[in-house]
């Protein structure tokens, strides 16, 4: 029986078991029309946490996965800068022999040098929120998940991490504002490094894309504006409403910039090789950059330069803190997620690319205008390839994402359109995606009903490998 058919059976039973979970909305950049994020999770009586090495099971009883339940615990956490404990280790895979693993059979699988990082191939794990870091803490099952996708010379970008308590918009997302979170991340990072991969962390502030349940003391989420996101309707008709935001005062903005700086420092303390700033998909940085949302009249609104001031300050602060040589920025200039779009996206993004060039930012990660369905229903993805002006303008490593399959990824690399290609859903469902590409093997289908559910195994670490090992 093939992996695919085996998995199909598992997916069916997974769906049956998950059928009562209430899906809510698509929140992370709508990979396709029916991808949705659950707003509410049903209470679960127990969770099993798996350790990468010993596979021990820790049974935690009586836990509820209601989004508001863990909040009281989070509120007790104080944001803090982590004192420097050790010189950050720059990961290099020079010592690792990987060339025998990845044949140069296809452009995607050729080695690539990204700054000081020697990558074995161009297939990158895209950042994907999985809502399985219960209590905003990375957990042992998170280590299993990332280690499954790690291999010598691979580049993984971890899911978006909240830079502060106000940065959260969804349940059980990991954070990087406390010493406890740094410690917890360290185990995940170690698991990935032990397999020879390079691991970056995405830093995130959701801004107005947050219900008050996830805000300290139930306060309004912050944004560049006081305009509320319009209610978002999910594929099953469920309507998700975000809270009316509070427009940040000019003098408050440096504190948010500082949250990114501290989180970046914390990421390095946790052992990450670098960070990716989340400037895409309608979240806070995008809410400042794009003119459909930013209606400010101060130095952070108006002209493109002024709307990009917040982004510029964040990337400058992070670059000064950890070095531009381990900093990436993710942008989605053409997207309109969460009512966030721009009347002149090309000029806007070129301006940001110029800022990145001035700072010497390591990589630019851009999402194609329309994320198409890669291979679903047997259809071929249609990649718009509208990122070429930015590819030409950016001096560092250029990474593309959005609807790519193996053939399209190969073409992007072969044509010089991109240096690296990030894969989201395909990597989520295929922990050994680069190896499957190398063998031109079939792929597991992703199960979107478990994208954002809280189970530490189901739809998370139970996608099968080609060789049935993990
Ligand atoms: C489950 C899921 C979670 C996601 N979470 C994030 C995230 O945390 N940060 C981000 O920038 N994009 C996020 N995205 C968007 C993906 O990184 C990627 O842009 C998208 O899936 C399109 O790529 P693909 O066609 O290869 O799947 C998420 C997508 C999915 C499916």
Automatic annotation (TrEMBL):
Disordered as annotated region, ranges: 1-32
Essential cofactor(s): FMN
Keywords from the named record: Fatty acid biosynthesis, Fatty acid metabolism, Flavoprotein, FMN, Lipid biosynthesis, Lipid metabolism, NADP, Oxidoreductase, Oxylipin biosynthesis
Family the entry assigns: Belongs to the NADH:flavin oxidoreductase/NADH oxidase family.
Biased amino acid composition, Polar residues: 1-25
Pfam families, alphabetized: Oxidored_FMN
Chain ranges of the NADH:flavin oxidoreductase/NADH oxidase N-terminal domain: 108-439
InterPro entries found in the cross-reference section: Aldolase_TIM (IPR013785), OxRdtase_FMN_N (IPR001155), Oye-like (IPR045247)
Organism whose genome encodes this protein: Oryza meyeriana var. granulata
MF term (GO), any: FMN binding
GO biological process: jasmonic acid biosynthetic process; oxylipin biosynthetic process
Protein name: NADH:flavin oxidoreductase/NADH oxidase N-terminal domain-containing protein
């Amino acid at each position: 029986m093939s992996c695919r058919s085996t998995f199909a059976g598992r997916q069916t039973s997974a769906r049956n078991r998950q059928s009562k979970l209430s899906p809510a909305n698509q929140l992370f950049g709508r990979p396709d029309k029916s991808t949705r994020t659950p707003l509410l999770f049903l209470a679960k009586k127990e969770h099993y946490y798996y350790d990468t090495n010993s596979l021990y099971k820790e049974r935690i009883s009586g836990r509820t996965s209601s989004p508001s339940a863990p909040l009281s615990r989070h509120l007790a956490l104080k944001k803090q800068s982590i004192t420097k404990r050790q010189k950050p280790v720059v990961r290099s895979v020079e010592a690792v022999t990987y060339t025998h693993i990845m044949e140069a059979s296809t452009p995607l699988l050729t080695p690539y040098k990204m700054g000081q990082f020697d990558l074995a191939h161009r297939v990158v794990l895209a950042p994907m929120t999985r809502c399985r870091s219960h209590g905003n803490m990375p957990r042992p099952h998170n280590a299993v998940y990332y280690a499954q996708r790690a291999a010598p010379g691979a580049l993984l970008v971890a899911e978006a991490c909240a830079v502060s308590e106000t940065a959260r918009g969804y349940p059980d997302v990991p954070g990087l504002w406390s010493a406890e979170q740094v410690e917890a991340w360290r185990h995940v990072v170690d698991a990935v490094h032990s397999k020879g991969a390079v691991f970056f962390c995405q830093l995130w502030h959701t801004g107005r894309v947050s219900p008050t349940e996830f805000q300290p003391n139930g306060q309004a989420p912050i944004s560049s504006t006081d305009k509320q996101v319009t209610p978002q309707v999910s594929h099953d008709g469920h309507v998700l409403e975000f809270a009316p935001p509070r427009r940040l005062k000019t003098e408050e903005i440096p504190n948010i910039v500082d949250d990114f700086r501290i989180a970046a420092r914390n990421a390095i303390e946790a052992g990450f090789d670098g960070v990716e700033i989340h400037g895409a998909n309608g979240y806070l940085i995008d809410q400042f950059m794009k003119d459909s949302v930013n209606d400010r009249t101060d130095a952070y609104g108006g002209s493109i330069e002024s709307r990009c001031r917040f982004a510029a300050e964040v990337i400058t602060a992070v670059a000064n803190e950890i070095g531009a040589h381990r900093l990436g920025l993710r942008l989605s200039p053409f997207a309109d997620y969460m009512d966030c779009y721009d009347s002149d996206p090309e000029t806007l993004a070129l301006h940001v690319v110029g800022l990145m060039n001035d700072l010497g930012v390591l990589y630019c990660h851009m999402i194609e205008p329309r994320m198409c369905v890669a291979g679903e229903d047997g259809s071929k993805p249609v990649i718009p390839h509208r990122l070429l002006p930015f590819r030409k303008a950016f001096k560092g490593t250029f990474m593309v994402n959005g609807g790519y399959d193996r053939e399209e990824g190969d073409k992007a690399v072969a044509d010089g359109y991109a240096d690296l290609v990030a894969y989201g859903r395909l990597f989520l469902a295929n922990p050994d995606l680069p190896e499957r590409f190398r063998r031109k093997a079939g792929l597991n289908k992703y199960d979107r009903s478990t994208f954002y559910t809280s189970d530490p195994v189901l739809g998370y670490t139970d996608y099968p490998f080609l060789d049935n090992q993990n």
